[in-house]
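User: quick one, fold this
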Amino acid sequence: MLSYNPVIKWIVRGLMLAMFLGCLYMPYAMFGVLPMFTFGNEYAAAEDALQKDRQGDAIVPAKISDDMVIGEGKPFVSAEELAQAKKDWMWCGFCHYTAADAPHRIGPNLNGIIGRRVGSKDKYFYTEPFRAAAKAGTIWTEESLNAFIADPAGLYPGNRMRYAPVTDPAKRDRIIKYLKAYTQ
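Assistant:
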């Protein structure tokens, strides 16, 4: 029978533990995600109730079709503009869902974001800047979203959004229009 030096065994165990801990830390290091730690949000229930009040008795479609968002008085004037907005949104969609019943991804679900308190989605662990903004009662508006997309680290220093700022105002406008069109 082959015997191993006890020191080598402890070195191997230490290396295996270090690799395991590295694997746990990797999602946070790369994306700022804390997948094992999702807490309730003290503002979520109140914001959900406010969102329902804002909707009132309006019938909210289960699925928003492209035809519902193109035309006079709607977010997009043409199919080409909508196609460009979807292309712009694609990068946001890697981290965020917009459907009402969808879970959070790396970033929070953005359904109903406009008019909602900053940092108030339930079961998503927000960083301190977002929690402070929620405590202060800051509301997401088109203007504040525009400012955030233009400079995420400048508006809320220390947030986990790793995507580079969107410097093109037209692109930011299309992203916000997409959010208005496809979130309820």
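User: anything notable?
Assistant: The helical segments are 6-31, 44-55, 79-93, 128-136, 142-150, 152-155, 169-182.
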